[in-house]
Amino acid sequence: MEGSEDLDSSLLTQPWASVCFGESTFIAKACFRETGYVLLISDLSSVWYERADTDVIGKRSKELNKRLTAHVSSFLNRLSNLMCPLLEGRESDANSFSCQQTPSKLTIHVKSELSGLPFYWDFHCPAAAVEMISRHLVRPLIRMSLALQYQLQELASLLVQKDVEIEDYRESGAALSRESAPAVRCRGRPGIHKHPAAPLHGRGQAGGEGSAEAASLRGCRDPRTHLVSAAGLLGHAGLSAGEG
Fold it and tell me: The dihedral of CA 233, 46, 39, 111: what is its sign?
């Protein structure tokens, strides 16, 4: 159980990446450790997730690779060497990936080699729980939105302040250094509203994780803060529009 929690915590620090299996495009993140692996993958319509420990990996490897006899660590290392380059945008012609998907399940078929023999693997990913989707997608994107909104408010306030300073210079008879057309005075944008971050009730308790999330959102000042797991998502959000 402790190993599973470590994997889930490590997965939060992994960035999203765009991957293709056949003609299907997804965003995915994964984490491989000695105790197993976790894989989170989405087509921006559905989200799937698999966590596999050494027992599951050992049993599945025997079912799919009857001619291969190796320690579970060898299979884990091979899976890591297959998936990590793919998530980094480096594909190999020596490996093939395909998938079968439904809203409730995604199966990724892998064909490669291990020790000179054919190596097969299937990732069996059922639909992810709501809490998993919230932790890896919803909350990071809300943090980014609120942080960027705060920066926009700060920039608007700065422009108003500079307008006041320029007007003071003019009234005091100072000559502006630039010979250009007068700038339009900044009145602020009607779409910029200051409002407190709404609580995120991750556990449905007023004093639990949701309150902590809301407090962290209100204190967020830098859009890069807490955004490792969501930064890649925005770069690939256009795939849903292209497929829809």
Answer: negative
